[in-house]
Amino acid sequence: MKFLTHWLIDVPEKLSRVFLWLPPLFARIVVGWVFMWSGWEKLHALPQITANFASWGIPFPEIMTPFVSGVEFFGGLFLLLGLFTRIAAVPLVVVMIVAIISAKLDQVDSFETLAGFEEMSYMALFGWLAVAGPGPISLDYLLQRLQPKDDRDVLSPSVRTT
């Protein structure tokens, strides 16, 4: 059993460590690009998108349309840059939840159907980025490295004694 565990789990894990930077970068580029352009297109077609929001029963469509469009555009841009990644991902998760509830809930007849929506895939990626972070190829990572180490721990700041 040790032999199998070593060759089928330990060795692939060690080999994959070389590529730990790649999944968050790839996820950010893909969803960042999609949402930046989706938000951009919505911002440039506000009357039509507002009418869609109204037909889906989204309250206050005149307010929600530019708001959601801005969240998609700026959230996507921030993800592309790897800037404020964990913060940018959260409202995008909320947008996906609202999109499913408002536009697709009537199509849900099983978990399989729900899981098949592209909004669920986006939501999973946003959730993962919110927890795992942007990875080492990001502005977040760069900004953290530029900040003195003592200033980084916000939850339990170090107490200096003289």
User: For the report, how would you describe the main beta sheet?
Assistant: none
In angstroms, what is the radius of gyration?
Answer: 20 Å
- Low-pLDDT windows of residues: none
State the order of secondary-structure elements, H for helix, E for strand: HHHHHHHH
Report the mean per-residue pLDDT as an integer.
92
Distance linking N and C termini:
54 Å
Percent of residues in helices comes to over 70%
User: How many H/I helices?
Assistant: 8
- Structural shape: globular
Describe the structure in your own words.
There is one protein chain. With 162 residues, the protein is mainly α. The protein contains eight helices and no strands. It has helices spanning 2-16, 22-43, 46-55, 61-81, 85-104, 111-116, 118-132, 139-146. It is globular. The model has no long low-confidence stretch (mean pLDDT 92).
Features of this protein?
mainly alpha
Tell me the layout of helices and strands.
Layout: H1 2-16, H2 22-43, H3 46-55, H4 61-81, H5 85-104, H6 111-116, H7 118-132, H8 139-146
Helix pairs in contact: 2-4, 2-7, 3-4, 4-5, 5-7
Summarize the model shown:
The chain has helices at 2-16, 22-43, 46-55, 61-81, 85-104, 111-116, 118-132, 139-146. The chain has 162 residues and is mainly α.
